[in-house]
């Protein structure tokens, strides 16, 4: 949560709910937001023909060109052509083949390199080609230009053909797609292979397209697993390795090696294979391939989770009774008139809807774009879920920091402590970014320390495992309303370089961008009516935060009233401002409380004047450089702290009438909407 600023919604619509614990695997029920789709396979053939008019990067010769191809929806690996030396018009005529699904967004990246022997190869140009341009049964000849002048050209031929294989079952929310997975179990019977194990030899298992990539069977191993996308038709390569390096090098290449295509295994049945040794013997392995089709550990969807919906039902009853007394209503509020340790341990405090829930916010950024925030994505934390608004993908809060692949939990890491999300651990500094230090409480375990720094560093970041890893994009992802709403990336980032393709998440404090934690409140599913916005930041002027929030919401089309302030307001801030959009009842009413000392100077309570002896207690300075509350001061004296509490409490109490008017207006809006 940003420093010195809080946002509260009437009826606590900001809060996710309470309910039964998540099952270990989330059952996939088809809804309007989550669908199961069946998609046939196609074979994409790409022929790299030639390049023309390639500019020279070397001083004494033409470039030594080759083309690299990367289609991450079909393979993790990049493939490349041979190198054509000393030629500005290289001709390759090489073909490459990819098994693809047309329901996912297939962007083929073609990179032209100049090969260098002594230094790193020079990247000359990159072209991202949308494979959707090629229809099944068609052959398309493209002349891809690398610049606006069109002199440098890469000629490529694309052909799309069908594949006679069973269709694949996909799970999608319209933005992200989870695909069928295989889990390969490998076991070596220790009794039958005792002699080999005693020699200190081990078996290296490799499936290049798998999540694990490599596993090693040793004397202490039991069953090892490798997870991969079923449709990629991966191959298991098993190699016997000796403990002695020289023996390994002298081993006959034909012995101690085995390759098994996984599509040759019967699903759910064990199969024995022999790894040939140097002498007439073999090492026996048991293989078993299991499908993982239905269950996901990542919740795909843009609606509120079941736990939050359950919380809101309980919370409505609590809020209804409070509002009836607070607003002096003669009748009970009806259902339609109401607003809808570790982080997960906070659930107990709201298991009957008795308390509001905290929401925390971070920004996912790219390391090379961190200072400019040209790439940023909101990541919200609640006691129930952690997830990305943009992608509609959420995991249980206790699973944050664990390892995921294709929406499935691979390796659970113990949940971190909540201190990294709490305001007391914020790092405060006015130094330039390059000179800033991080001030934080260090929890006892390493995972907690890492996540602590994730959300408190400015602008330093920490990396955490990416729970979106492996998930792919739906072919129409960029047309999805929710994706468009939260897609405020300024840089032109193709899908191959968005968050699901990253190994780790790079999260920073949201305050580095805008000093607000408002965005989670503004999700249309939460239907917030009133926001109490406490702008207690002294980073800039007291209005910068809410003005930046208002401008951001205008740009993104989020429901937020226009923030209109006069020069007098900025010179002499009032205790409370009300911002409302009278033309659109769907826009929440915002009551903004800046950190101001106006009537508190002369009144110790609303309507109660200070005596001459009490005037000193009303003398609070938030403006001058000598203020005890300036940003560099991380601690306050007891007297200064008490004054701060008193003035903020007074400002709220003194503007009770404005709050009541806002609440009444919100209730009337709801009644009118249902009439």
From TrEMBL:
Domain PLA2c: start-end pairs: 340-675
**Pfam families cross-referenced by the UniProt entry:** C2, cPLA2_C2, PLA2_B
Top-rank lineage group of the source organism: Eukaryota
State any GO CC term.
cytosol
- Note the topology in the membrane: Peripheral membrane protein
One of this protein's GO BP terms? glycerophospholipid catabolic process
The chemistry this enzyme catalyses reads: a 1,2-diacyl-sn-glycero-3-phosphocholine + H2O = a 1-acyl-sn-glycero-3-phosphocholine + a fatty acid + H(+)
Annotated GO molecular function terms are:
calcium ion binding; calcium-dependent phospholipase A2 activity; calcium-dependent phospholipid binding
Q: What is its EC number?
A: 3.1.1.4
Q: Which UniProt keywords are listed?
A: Calcium, Cytoplasm, Hydrolase, Lipid degradation, Lipid metabolism, Membrane, Metal-binding
Q: Describe the location of the C2 domain by residue ranges.
A: 24-144
Q: Which InterPro entries does this one have?
A: Acyl_Trfase/lysoPLipase, C2_cPLA2, C2_dom, C2_domain_sf, cPLA2_C2, LysoPLipase_cat_dom
Where does it localize? Cytoplasm, Cytosol; Membrane
Name the enzyme group at the top EC level.
Answer: hydrolase
Q: Which residues form the signal peptide?
A: none
Record remark on domains: The N-terminal C2 domain associates with lipid membranes upon calcium binding.
Full protein name: Phospholipase A2
**Native organism:** Alligator sinensis
